[in-house]
Amino acid sequence: MPNLIYISPSFIVADLKTSVSFYVDQLGFEVRYMGPDGSRGVTFHQPLRDDEDGLRGFEVADADGYMSFFGRPN
């Protein structure tokens, strides 16, 4: 079986520094890229969840109040 060389996970966590510390310090992972700090003041209208249409995603409201859903099939 081939060795796992790298992964690109995306996690929703309560405290980014604590979570990264766990994977780096405890499990020995190496961080190659970390996205921008925070969600830049965005208020989530609907947090990440599985909806009744079989989609996993979240909703945000833009500056004009329009709702946008970002997700994928569950």
Describe this entry's structure for a reader.
With 74 residues, this protein is α+β, with helices and mostly antiparallel strands. The protein has one domain: 2-Layer Sandwich (Signal recognition particle alu RNA binding heterodimer, srp9/1), CATH 3.30.720. 15% of the residues lie in helices and 28% in strands. The chain is built from one helix and three strands. The protein has one helix spanning 16-26; strands spanning 44-50, 55-61, 67-73. The protein has a three-stranded antiparallel sheet, with no helix packed on it. A hairpin with a 4-residue loop joins strand 1 (44-50) and strand 2 (55-61). The model has no long low-confidence stretch (mean pLDDT 82).
Brief write-up:
The protein has 1 helix and 3 strands; from the N terminus they run H-E-E-E.
The amount of helix comes to 10-25%
Taking Cα atoms only, what radius of gyration do you get, to the nearest Å? 16 Å
Summarize model confidence as the mean pLDDT. Answer: 82
The name of the CATH architecture is 2-Layer Sandwich
CATH class, anyone? Alpha Beta
Number of helices: 1
- Percent of sequence in beta strands: 25-35%
> What count of structural domains?
1
The computed structural class is alpha+beta
CATH topology (level 3) name: Signal recognition particle alu RNA binding heterodimer, srp9/1
